[in-house]
Design a protein that fits this description.
The chain has helices spanning about 35-45, 60-75, 100-115, 130-145, 160-165, 170-180, 205-210, 250-255, 255-270, 275-285, 300-305, 315-320; strands spanning about 5, 10-15, 20, 50-55, 80-85, 85-90, 95, 120-125, 150-155, 185-190, 215, 290. It is an alpha/beta fold. The protein has a single domain (about 5-225, about 285-315), classed as Alpha-Beta Barrel (TIM Barrel), CATH 3.20.20.100. Strands 3-4-5-8-9-10-11-12 form an eight-stranded parallel sheet. Helix 1 (about 35-45) crosses helix 2 (about 60-75). Bound molecules: NADP nicotinamide-adenine-dinucleotide phosphate. NADP nicotinamide-adenine-dinucleotide phosphate binds near residues 19, 20 and 298. The site of NADP nicotinamide-adenine-dinucleotide phosphate has 27 residues, from helix 11. GO terms for molecular function: oxidoreductase activity. Keywords: Oxidoreductase. One of its GO terms (cellular component) is cytoplasm.
Length: about 325
């Protein structure tokens, strides 16, 4: 598989990574597919999808434990990205950016991941009670201690930004400027997909200008852009799409022209090419510093998603995707 590098330290990973979250968190059936998930992670490494993206919050903790079972056997083949800063409370998810907590959380992640170093340690969310420089300073100390190779920052997505009344990613860029004063940012993780292209306006160029890698989260639109979901099929209460405004039956039906467009482009590249592969290829074409991390807990999807690196979208394809209608259904 094509390799891409992120950050000034030129850390190399496969061009397509693997988002491990759906194996333990956020999607219905997450907890029932342990063995299948393990096979999916192994398959990803077999295919050169070396970047495994997890977080202590996913599960909580069980996602790191699962990834750790693979790392125990194949550490040298993987690039592991995990996150700190969000805790699952009884009622809500809360931020904790206190330096002492960050140090303890890192040691706990290392134990669960069965490794002595994390390749990319990301701040999941800044704690409003703690200056972000303090949290980032504690994370930088972990690099000095050899427990972490590089630091990353996760952006607050559409829901959080709209709630706080800001323009999408303005707040993230302000945070990035502040933490860069303390220690270099190697990667930013934020949503980027055909139906959520907002990062292209300011965040992606900010990263490109500074050699900062961009991990594209939710590159398949939480599964919608694969065209395998049926409007009105419904989601279990533990599936985050049950509360997502784009996943009502009405909005899923209204957004079908986006799938139709992806399929038209796919057809130009061969009978076996899928809408999911075109969606990922579009993300890959946004810059050499961009690494999509599609979430998948099935080997079949991992194999299909890795195949996106073999598709080269033409200017005509990119123009067709750019001309697709904007997604209906927002958090406003
Ligand atoms: N930093 C953050 O705040 C943040 C937020 C959200 C996500 N993330 C990261 O980004 C990663 C990706 O996001 P995501 O997993 O939420 O969304 P996604 O990658 O857009 O979509 C994942 C969904 O697509 C399905 N899928 C994957 N490949 C498919 C294919 N080829 N054909 C049909 N269906 C396919 C998966 O199904 P199965 O589950 O059945 O395999 C899963 O339901 C996460 O795993 C996580 O690591 C980060």
């Amino acid at each position: 598989m094509e390799r891409r590098t992120i950050g000034a330290g030129a850390l190399a990973t496969g061009a397509v990574g693997l988002g491990c979250m759906p194996m333990s968190w956020g999607y219905s059936g997450s907890r029932q597919r342990g063995d299948e998930s393990l096979r999916a992670v192994h398959r990803a490494l077999d295919l050169g999808c070396t970047l495994l993206d997890t977080a202590d919050m996913y599960g909580p903790f069980t996602n790191e434990l699962l990834v750790g079972r693979v790392l125990k056997e194949r550490r040298a083949e993987a690039f592991v990205s995990t996150k700190v800063g969000l805790l699952v409370g009884e009622q809500h998810i809360v931020a904790n950016g206190r330096p002492g907590y960050v140090r303890r959380a890192c040691d706990a992640s290392l134990r669960r991941l069965q490794t002595d170093v994390i390749d990319l340690y990301q701040l999941h969310r800044a704690d409003p009670e703690v200056p972000v420089e303090e949290t980032w300073g504690a994370m930088a100390d972990l690099v000095q201690a050899g427990k972490v190779r590089a630091l990353g920052l996760c952006a607050v997505g559409a829901r959080g930004a709209r709630r706080s009344g800001g323009r999408l990613y303005d707040g993230t860029i302000r945070q990035l400027r502040r933490v860069q004063q303390v220690f270099p940012v190697s990667a930013v993780e934020a949503e980027l997909s055909v139906w959520s292209p907002e990062a292209l306006d300011t965040l992606l160029p900010w990263c490109a200008a500074r050699g900062v890698g961009f991990l594209a989260a939710m590159p398949l639109g939480n599964g919608f852009l694969t065209g395998t979901l049926t409007p009105g099929e419904g989601f279990e209460p533990d599936d985050m799409r049950a509360r997502h405004p784009r996943f009502t039956a009405e909005m899923m039906a209204a957004n079908q022209p986006i799938i139709a467009g992806l399929r038209r482009v796919a057809a130009r590249h061969g009978d076996a090419v899928t809408a999911a592969q075109v969606a990922l290829s579009w993300v890959l074409s946004q810059g050499p510093h961009v690494i999509p991390i599609p979430g998948a807990k099935r080997e079949r999807w991992v194999t299909e998603n890795a195949g996106a690196t073999e598709i080269r979208l033409t200017p005509e394809d990119l123009a067709e995707v750019a001309g697709l209608p904007g997604a209906r259904g927002s958090w406003d």
